Amino acid sequence: MFKIITVDDEKMIKRSLRVMIEGANPDFRIVGEAKNGQEAMDIIHGDPPHLLITDICMPIMDGLELIAEVKRNYSHTQIIVISGYSEFNYAQQALRYNVTDYLLKPIDPEEFKQVLKKIYEQHISNEQRSIDRREQMWKIVDNGEQIVNWIWTLQENHLRSKLEAIRTELELLCIETDLVRDIYRDLLIYTTNRLGERSGRSYPHTMASEPGPTPSMKELHDQFQGASMSLFKEIVHLRNWGQSQHMKKTIDYIQANFSNSEISLLHMAEYASMSISYFSRFFKEETGTSFMKYLTNLRIGKAKELLAIQEHKVGDVALMVGYTNYHHFAKAFKKFTGITPTEYRQMHEERVL
To answer: Of the residues 15, 52, 82, 152, which has the fewest C-beta atoms closer than 10 A?
Structure first.
């Protein structure tokens, strides 16, 4: 239903408008008729219409005051102004309020019908646009979370692949470029806000709506990709700036928990909120060795201390330093020391004797 309110202090005019409106489209419904602006506002407050059709010269509150009030409070309501030749100066003032259209009395039925048709078609288009936007919202959240994850974990290849997948999906939907711009803008806002929550910093939304012609699909995607990669570089810079301190905390954690058999490269990369490749690279830069060599060195060093204590069985020592499989422990021990755990214990016993 397309709701319309008519405002005129002449009953015959309102009656004539009703006949033309109801005959133009079965979806049109007059939900209120008023004889002045104040009466019209009372109706509008109770049930805002899609379209307001108003005269200019009326008692108590004239059409110009009414238009200004509606524009302030109900900006989505379309407005048609009707006036006589002698009121043309008032009509010009009404146009400054960006009314949808104006018609001169006596109203030409065919012209009026065409104006109503144009307004109604725009209304249907806006409604469909709203439906499309609601249908896209879950995709914005889902895609946004994936983009945030790839940026935060510094996985550039995954990020670029995701951006390309979004481009392909939007092209296949065959939706208006205005909607594509809105989707990209909302996606960027979501991404920057979520990254801001994680990093404790704010990032600019560099793809806000601007007046003028809508860019092409390619231009919109290039803008979004550029903004996303800028965010990626920001996070890389942030990580590099705080990397040494952050990696030191990670190393402290490893040193305190190396006997936990669950400690692994994947586990520590997740602990540091990095991809495995970035974690491995930064870990080696900080320690001068790979993660596995570092972890194994800690475990074997502790194992040598424990093997020197006679009451610990060799198999128990393996478990105490994080190995659930004795064979793996023995293999690692021999690789680092050149002898087996049993041989090491025997040599230690001989030195004690």
So the answer is: 15
CA 230 – CA 226 distance, rounded (Å): 6
CA distance 29 to 202: 48
Spatial contact of 48 and 74, defined as CB atoms under 8 Å apart: yes
For residue 190 the two structure tokens come to: 């979501």
d(CA 327, CA 206): 57
| pLDDT, tens digit, 9 for 90 and up, residues 247-274 | 778 888 998 999 999 999 999 988 888 8
**Quick one: 3 exposed, middle or buried, by C-beta within 10 A (0-12, 13-18, 19+)?**
middle
Are 166 and 143 in contact by the 8 Å Cβ rule? The answer is yes
Q: Are 176 and 183 in contact (CB under 8 A)?
A: no
Q: Is 102 helix (H, G, I), strand (E, B) or coil?
A: strand
Helices (H), 258-325: 265-271, 276-287, 291-307, 314-320
Q: What is the number of other CB atoms lying within 10 angstroms of the CB of residue 41? A: 19
Q: CB-side exposure of 54: number of CA atoms within 13 Å?
A: 35
pTM of the model: 0.42
- pLDDT of 33 > 90? The answer is yes
Q: Which CATH class is domain 2-107?
A: alpha beta
